[in-house]
Amino acid sequence: MAFNYMFPLRAAQFFFAVITIGLAGYVAHWYIVRDGVSSPSQINFLIFASLWTLFTVPYLTIAPVYFPKLTHKYATLATDALTMLFWFAGFVALAVFLSSLSLCLGSVCGSARAAAAFGAFIW
User: Fold this and answer.
1) Dihedral of CA 94/38/86/123: which sign?
2) In which residue ranges of the chain is pLDDT below 50?
3) Smallest Cα–Cα separation from 42: which of 66, 19, 23, 70?
4) How many helices (H) and strands (E) are present in the chain, helices listed first?
5) pTM value?
């Protein structure tokens, strides 16, 4: 029996999405509590990409194994491609936003940088 490499990759993808949503959520919370304004759209988009991944990884992991007749190969490919596009756009947008800041200090800045780095890993 051959080893299925997709399950560990999907587990890592899910784990990195959980880490990224925690980091980006912290940054969004900091903006709301400290400044009383909404968080930057780049942070919000990375939260969306994390939530999208948390919803699609179970489908991409379970459906081909337990429901092979109901799983369409092009739907799986499209879901994976869309997820990849979301992550690429999210981490690049956040990296550009962070590079344009004139002042980035404290734990919130480190958390935003870590969220961009994990976004790059998951891409």
Assistant:
1) positive
2) 1
3) 23
4) 4, 0
5) 0.89
